[in-house]
Fold:
Amino acid sequence: MRNSNWIGAVAAGVLWIASGAVNGGMTWNGYLSGSIGAALPATIPTTVWAQPLPWPLVAAAIGAVAVALVHLATTRVVDRTSTTIVGGWFAAIIAGAVVGLAADLVTILVSLPAPRLQWLLNGLGTQAGLGAYWGLVLGWLPAVLAKRLESAPTGTPTRRPLVPFAAVLALLAVVVVGVGGYRSALTAAVQAEAIAGGFDEADGALPDPYAEGTPPPTAAPGEPPADPTLCTSDVSTLLLGGQDAAAGSRSLSITLLNFSEAPCTIEGYIDLAFADQNGSELPVVFEPGSTTMTTDPGAQRIEIPAQGSAVAFLGWKANSTAGALVGSTLFAAPYPSAERGSWPVQTDVVDGSTVSVTAWRLLDPNEELQD
Structure:
């Protein structure tokens, strides 16, 4: 009996892979994609087959091992004295449901944190139900095989707690491999999209959707100036200028356009922050001052006429960006405490860079800035 139980368990594991592989292959190629699942359920989701190697193969193998171990543990409970077709069939249903439930847990884990509490358990039961259906439709095959190969018992069967323990470990492995495969697939997709969009690996490390960090605050701390003529967002807007480079230095301009029909005032320095290619705030030191390409006039209160503009400049030294976190998004506000806007940028500002910032000054209408 003991050997026949093992044979039935191994057959169930092989059948688990075969059903998922054939279903995935036929669905991928458009053959009977709407009905193949009735006879050969998708025990291995199509999303798993779409993951980069070796994750699909590892996931399929771990799932098959888990099915075999749960099947074996179940038959040892329901068929204590002899192998039965009903017991083996029932074991296949239980194994498919339990391993499917582990796959559902992967769906929940990779979706955390859930946007809404009621979405927390979305997907729970999908693969579990499909796995149970697999056992119902195909589970009789390993059961019949085990029964036909049953040998006479050689003695009183002994309890082996190792099998249930191994089954639990295999189920945990299903979850771990499932989460790892999903993360790998998402990372590969994000990086492929970045490369397709023109991202050059020489300009910085490829984006990592699982990089730790927090985005820049939407506004710097502080109280807005108590000035009724202040250039607020109701009357003005920031415009990103172009970058310029010379002798190992970089500069970038930002203008503040007063689009109203009355003058407005601004004083001091622009509020800035960089986010890296992963959306996390990049540690950068912003300090008032001039560079070889920019001149800081010092903080002063200026009045921007109607339809006029003020300008501020950023300046920094060139840096090596290969494999580095770089400033990929620039956040700015006319003054601290104002809400920041943002633009995607391509810079060689890296972690630890010092960026010199000039105070606001009036922009001469005839002055040409770098586009």
Remarks:
- The helical segments are 2-28, 36-39, 46-49, 55-78, 85-110, 126-138, 140-148, 162-196.
- The radius of gyration is 32 Å.
